[in-house]
Specification:
Layout (H helix, E strand, L loop, with lengths): L10 H49 L3 H62 L6 H43 L8
Length: 181
Amino acid sequence: MSKNPFNVSSMPNQQRAIDATKVAGRIAAESAQAIAQINQQATQELATLIQKRVSDLMKTQDPRSAFEYVHAEVLQDAAKEVTHYHHQLLEVLKTGNKELADIAEAMIQESKADLIHFVNDATNNAPIGSEAYVSVFKTSFNNALQNFELIRATMVDSFANFEKSVENVNNLANPKGVSKK
């Protein structure tokens, strides 16, 4: 008797994994495209700003006024542009991270449910007299599920910590309550 190498019951699970991988790839591609657009826009804005500032600077005859102009106008504008650019990048990363975390969580829950169903089916159909083995197996399986939940909780915490660090970096770049002179 030869065994069929294809397990038809696992095909829906494989299809879900393929679909999730496609979605994760799409999210990564969209994030990369958004970052490329941000970079292109920032480069164009910077080139325009530099051209304007150099033109204005060339009109200045007094070195002291040129220094004051550079200090007051150019550096402040550059700082604002860098802050704006940084904020845009962080938003793209934050959005992509959230979507990937949601996909991972859904896949974990589906896999866990499938595994519990498989174990319950296997233990319910165990031969008579194997109750001790079934008990040991179920205990081991429950311990493995608890460890799995600890790993999942750690993953959720790491995603939350990443999001908090993105917010902290963004808050550092955009201090609130700073008075303007």
